[in-house]
Specification:
Blueprint (H helix, E strand, L loop, with lengths): L1 H10 L1 H14 L9 E9 L7 E10 L4 E7 L3 E12 L2 E6 L3 E3 L5 E3 L5 E7 L8 E8 L5 E8 L25
Parallel strand pairs: 1-10
Antiparallel strand pairs: 1-2, 2-7, 2-8, 3-6, 3-9, 4-5, 4-8, 9-10
The structure holds copper (II) ion (CU).
Length: 175
């Protein structure tokens, strides 16, 4: 029962609040809450036995200069920041040790560039599903965002191409 008591104390929200208040008072520069905006995190749907997938988003730093240092998700055994580079006409992915974020300059993680590489996938990523992704920054507090699984665009074909007109439908006659 000792263990339970310790956990209850650790989980006491009042203690967290006091700790946070103390931190803010001691370091006013850290008082800005969340200074990174994470917009539209998405990942491509994967094949049934795929072990890896790339996740994409746009990060905008609205505070002080910062750096994305690591990523993690429960759907992947391991997640890394990668960048795609072209070498002698061959596209390669290399681990990046982070992504610098400058205030007011959005950084887009997109196919062909920076991306979050999800490796050792524990489940198939199916269109319409979503899962958490945690982003850890050098300065800002870690953020967990919800990644949506889409069929978005490896090439020129976006989701709108799935919306074919029904066969037999015709345009209404012009007046
Ligand atoms: Cu990669």
């Amino acid at each position: 029962m000792k263990g339970v008591t310790a956990e209850e104390q650790a989980a006491d929200p009042d203690q967290d609040l006091h700790a946070a208040a103390g931190l803010v008072a001691a370091a006013p520069a850290l008082a800005q809450a969340q200074s990174i905006q994470v917009v539209h995190p998405w990942v491509r749907a994967t094949a049934p036995n795929a072990k890896a997938g790339g996740a994409f988003t746009t990060l905008t730093d609205t505070g002080a200069p910062d750096r994305l240092v690591s990523v993690g998700s429960p759907v992947a055994g391991m997640a890394e920041v990668h960048r795609t580079v072209e070498e002698n006409g061959v596209m390669k992915m290399l681990p990046a040790d982070g992504i610098d974020l400058a205030p007011g300059k959005p950084v887009t993680l997109a196919p062909g560039g920076y991306h979050v590489m999800l490796m050792g996938l524990k489940q198939q990523l199916k269109q319409g599903d979503s899962f958490p992704l945690t982003l850890t920054f050098a300065k800002a507090a870690p953020m967990t965002v919800t990644v949506t699984v889409t069929v978005e665009a490896s090439g020129a074909f976006g989701p709108s191409h799935d919306m074919h007109a029904m066969p037999g439908m015709s345009m209404p006659p012009k007046p």
